[in-house]
Amino acid sequence: MTSLPAEPASDPADEPLADGSAADGPLVDGPAADAEPRQRRPTLRSDLRASIPDGVIALIVTAAVFALLYVRIRAETSSTVSVMPFMTDTSEFWMYFLSQAFGWSALLWAWITVVLGLLLSGSRPSWLRLSGPRLERLHRTTSLNTIALIVAHALFFAAQLVYSDTARWHSAIGTAFVETFVPGGYDSGTGKLAIPLGQAALYLAIPLGLLFYVRHRIGPKTWRVLHRFVIAVYVLSIWHTLLYGTNVWYDGLFRNTIWLLQLPIAALLLLRLLKPARRSEKLRGPRGGSPAAWALRLTGRLAVVGVIAALIGVLVSGNDGGRTVAPEDTSSSHNDHD
Q1: Is there a contact between 330 and 85 (Cβ–Cβ < 8 Å)?
Q2: Measuring CA to CA, which residue among 138, 92, 94 is closest to residue 113?
Q3: Angle formed by the axes of helices 132-164 and 191-210, to 10°?
Q4: N or C terminus: fewer CB in 10 A for the chain?
Q5: In the chain, count of helices (H) and strands (E)?
Q6: What angle do CA 187, 327, 188 make, to 5 degrees?
Q7: How close are the terminal C-alpha atoms of the chain, in Å?
């Protein structure tokens, strides 16, 4: 590995706070003074090697989810059967179920990555036993595996479209590519909105996740600004799941669990904003700096409080405004791959 060149002098306002937490982590801006040794810069190759154990765990989780989905479909206890009755033919649609399994593990790994990033970018809690370098390395490896899982999710979805298409193989592959990877190419049911959301998450995740490895070329400040959009990848993934995940199509335990898992992230984000690692991000009075910047930071904190209140409201009421009951007659429900 090459040595890390000296960084340009930073604004004193950007210096870490006295608690020592403030270095640049890969997936949510912020870092740790005790992060990777300054003489060594993490490389994509080294992180890919380090991500293998984490990737094996992700595959095991995916296999377990696939087994659960498969058993529920066979037993006709999954809401997927209510939405798409033809899916009971498991020998025909097993790749679709595998795509779903990869999608769920991708969402879980994205959740873990965001949580680790928020822990890195703010004042680390005293109960967290992982050192800064270990936490940052884990954050990078889960980020890389999240990208891999999203790609696998999309590829198996496309493979199912090819397998189920009665057209000639080259036509089937072309159609599957357009419907899976081209925004607007999928024009059926909720997929008209849900699929582009998933595509946006994929096309944002890859560059935003890999920019970490060239941040010394684009500049750390530019990288931090771009990296903050990673949270958009996660939000798009959640939205895609709630709209298109037929096993969480209706209100119930599984759908509520998704909402419940957003509370820790919202709480960590609020803590990150209330106790930022950089002095320049503190909420000082409007006289202590730019009034516009102060107003923007205050608005951000109030918005997160509003999100937390909305999440609690959804969990208490058990209704997020989506579908509430399955149709009594499923024989005519969605005769496409929606």
Answers
A1: yes
A2: 138
A3: 140
A4: N
A5: 12, 0
A6: 5
A7: 47
Helix-, strand-, coil-residue percentages of the chain, each rounded to 5: 70, 0, 30
207: CB partners within 8 A, 6+ apart: none
DSSP codes of every residue in 126-160? TT--S-HHHHHHHHHHHHHHHHHHHHHHHHHHHHH
Where do the DSSP E strands lie in the chain? none
Q: Residue 251, SS3?
A: coil
Assign 183 to helix, strand or coil: coil
* Structure-token pair, residue 113: 């990555």
254-313 pLDDT, tens digit each? 888 899 999 999 999 888 888 776 666 676 655 556 777 778 888 888 999 999 999 999
- Whole-structure pTM over 0.85, yes or no? no
* CA 173 – CA 95 distance, rounded (Å): 15
